[in-house]
Amino acid sequence: MRLYLLFTIFAVLVAAVFAWEKEDHEIFDLVSALEASEGKGTTFYSLLDVPPTASTSQIAKAYRRLSVKIHPDKNPGVKNAHERFARLGVIANILRNKASRKRYDFFYKNGVPRWRGTGYYYSRFRPGLGTVLVFLIMVTSGLQLLIQRINYKKDLARIELITRRAKRAAWGPKLVPLAGQRKVRVSLGQEYDEDGFVDNSRSIEMVVEGQDVYIFDDDGELQPIDNSTATTPSFGNTWFIALVKSVYHKLTSKEKSDDVIQHPDVDTSAGFDVSDSSDETSDTTGSGTNTPKESTEKLNKRMVPVEKAGGKRRKVNKRR
């Protein structure tokens, strides 16, 4: 709640600082009308034909000269002659006043805001979707890298604490190195049970050998624990780079699996002919034994139907 209140106050102050005043709107309207009448890019100084560093007397002299030239009485029938003459008088008054001239010089150097329907706004760069996405990726990746560095420092401090405890348990409080391996149990920190008592159940077995400290992994093998155990912060470990790597590995593994399916490796070392498998299968009888090819052909010849002679069945006389 307090953070939201501070943010609201800050937003109000910023809006108050950047809000245009009445004199600013008068200058904006004059610049717009002047460019519409005299041409785009026309300024108060170019209208009077004086440099921006002109003195007040030079501005007054230029005003008198131009006012005589564009006076409505000198230009009868000229359209908008009265508006041009009145505008010239307002511009001269602004430049002859020290405060108003300073205000105009600010917009003269930094540009005049443009009318956007509801007010005057500066024409600012409007980033596209791609620019916004790139910006968000860079910001989030940078924050993640910062968090990685903070965690890395914490991991180094924790490793230093655990190794010091292991050496103290193996060598004693004086930390005099002893020869050989020594297996010790090191507490990882104090925990409190439901009754509020200290529970030292969080402990691990470690092995100290010289200046090296080892820890048992899941397979019971000894793994050294030192500063290299902590994960080094890297931009390659941020979420976007990790996502790109994951997608790339999935695509490459899919292409490899497709190649294996389309071109399988057949082992012909056992002496089998893959191309003749269909013939061998056709030569296999229902009893599970192989019938020779020649006997099969003879059997097929015997089973070939014979055409009837004359188309009629002849009676065979039995011999008595």
UniProtKB/TrEMBL annotation:
CDD domains registered for this protein in UniProt: DnaJ (cd06257)
Compositionally skewed regions (Basic and acidic residues) per UniProt: 254-266
Keyword hit for Transmembrane: yes
KW Transmembrane (keyword) present: yes
Region entry Disordered, spans: 254-320
InterPro entries in alphabetical order: DnaJ_domain (IPR001623), DnaJ_domain_protein (IPR052606), J_dom_sf (IPR036869)
GO cellular component terms given for this protein: endomembrane system
Gene3D superfamilies assigned: DnaJ domain
Localization in the cell: Endomembrane system
Signal peptide stretch: 1-19
Superkingdom to which the source organism belongs: Eukaryota
Membrane spanning stretches: 128-147
Identification of the protein by name: J domain-containing protein
